Amino acid sequence: MTLVFTEEQNALRSAVRKFTGDRFSSERVRALMETPDGHDPDTWELMARQLGLQGLLVPEELGGSGASLVELAITCEELGYGLACSPFLGTAGLATTVLLACGDQAARRDLLPGIADGTTIATVALTEEPSAATPCGTGLTATRTAGGHVLDGVCSFVPDGHIADVVLVVAGTASGAGVFAVDRNATGLVRDRLTTLDLTRKQARLGFTATPARLVGAPQTADAALEDALDTIRVLIAAEQVGGAQRCLDMSVEYVKTRCQFGRTIGSFQAVKHRCADMLVAVESARSAVHHAMETAADRSDTLRLAAPMAVTMASEAYQYCARQNIQLHGGIGCTWEHDAHLHYRRAHTGAVLIGDGRHHRTLLATRLGM
To answer: How far apart, in whole angstroms, are the C-alpha atoms of residue 134 and residue 137?
Structure first.
């Protein structure tokens, strides 16, 4: 498989790389991660108005650009490279993917235009626990009422759940699992920001008590829709992780080329060269798996069922490995709060369990292979 990017896709990559460099410098990232919201509204608006990033997957008739998953994955990769503090993954990646998978035309018309123009921040309640393998739902129940549905239960570790205008939640119904949209001002909704390892991506605990919710799609088709959506989400998370791993490699190579010890740059030592070479192999192997998954997702190929868990497994392990080596190659300075190496280490480990860890995805891949 060879994925050749078009001129437009390469131009998109360059534009996003420049944007992240301008808007998410080390100093800016550190300032944003100390704020309660964890992102800059002005930057969020620029992403929508100037680059149209939030609307990449949104159909043109709903205000988006109708691009493929390849363009969105490229964007996620570059934002991961820049360690962007932004609700982009939850909004343009998770929520948009679930809305499109559920096939509810009315919900699409109501929610996707706001996502595309940057006026709506959205997210998806993914898991009960940070290492859980299944979507959130076992701890949430939906009860049908005369006015629609109400939700009861708790869901933790929701990306940007404390600031999202719309939260898509998976809850159990009498007909099976269902996807529900909850407005930020809904009665009975309590949102508490959590203190997590990754300071650059805020997460929240959401509590629901007789909270009004809108059913998105039909409960009978929710399981299949969620399975498709989760495979797509795996590809996007894997792309972000490859971007972060590449950044760790670049940081390491830049440092070992300038740091001198015993009268020579440490990059000239064979042991250091070996470490950098191992990082490169890990990054390029993961990138190949992610690019393959990007292509299968864009083509809606059945092989995505295998490509997605393989990509997220390889990318998460590559990112964790490169983040660890980045700290070690920087030596003492790499262990300090002032250096950015620990920020990537934190992102690598929290991202690896966002929708299930490597063990889960290996098991999923084996199951799908019939092993």
So the answer is: 8
